[in-house]
Fold this sequence. Notes:
The complex is a heterodimer of chains A (78) and B (377). Chain A is an alpha+beta fold and 78 residues long.
Amino acid sequence: MTVCIAEMPSYTYAVKGEKLLRARGYPCEIKRNERPGGGCGFSLIIKGGCPEALDILRAYSVPYTNVRGGGTDDAGKL
Amino acid sequence: MMPVNFDNAATTFPKPECVRRAAADAVRQLGGNAGRGGHALAMKSSAAVYSARETAATFFGAQPENTVFTLNCTHALNMAVQGIMRGGGHMIISCLEHNSVARPAAALASSGRVSLSVAKVYPDDDKTVESFRHLIRRDTKAIVSTLASNVTGQLLPWKRIGELCKENGICFIADGAQACGVVDVKLSDGINILCTAGHKGLYGLTGTGLLISDGRYPIEPIIQGGTGTASADLEQPLLLPEALESGTLNIPGIMSLKAGIEFVSRLGTERIFRHETGICRRFINELVNLPGVTVLRDSTASYVPIVSFTIDGIAPEKAAAKLSEAGYCLRAGYHCAALSHTCLGTENGTIRFAPSVFSRESDAAALADEIKKLLRD
């Protein structure tokens, strides 16, 4: 299972993204950003199906700022 | 003996048990700062606030990310009016606006950046809509209108004003302070930005309000500060809702507001309106034929459950003080709406009767008896 981390612009959008993905069978959870230098923020840890999950976020206009891991690129990021 | 509150247009009291419990639970259990950390307490508060956002958004037909918690309706209206008009242009307000609209509008106008027109409101909705239409110019950026007057309770034709705005590409900012919770208000009524109090018809605690946007018109923040987002950047983030929520949120207040909205949803606005309107009708029937008493109602207009009246020869403040001694709480004076009194011709202000869902018709009748005594003395 590939895990990717989508950095979200706010807690609000992190929850919105989490709810959208969970409702569609993509396990994910919200974590506080741990990357130094990025400032306060939250990430969505998506556990599997990252490219499709990110497509869903884009389709619902849920912005994200950066994606790490999961063999994804940053296309569609905020 | 507990006084009888007929000043619910200022703030509703008593609050429902579920609201009191929600606030108390929040104080006990939601000790973390929402959106400000990743530890268990902060995450629990953040989740609770998001859930309140969803409740408010669903109630008004909006999206949670466009639902902003504010301190009160004035705070929301200032953010909306100043945030939309910051770049200048022309704005129209109604003549029945509360000072929460009239003062920021006047301040913008006196700064020279904004030109301001005031649309007269008539009992006839057609004439009111024409009054707004007539004032629209090429550079009109916003129409700001109350949904219902806080002085007389008159409902404005807001869906038609919304249509007018849409036809002309104008942002419609609505003040829902007296309408939300007693009539069904949705963003789909043509409202671009809805501002309302949380502590009136939505039964939350004081210190709560909402700004709800449809996302069409960007609102420039008038307050900058910590948002819990993009904190390495010195520029204020522009993404709602956090862009307009700098500083720590009133979490017990927000949870009380969630409970209040759920309370109103369970009862239904139609039922609440019917109950309170019935009490107003009884009160008006008691007053209407009394010599020297003028009830500020027009049979051709529609009203939320608010009744303003005057008594010849007795100043509103004096009448309210006498009624307070008898155990009844009513607001008197200008009700922070100076423009309205110019429009209505009530230069000495009015006495305002405003029931809530907890009010009783028998109390309204007893109050009317006190007013009759006042007339005799």
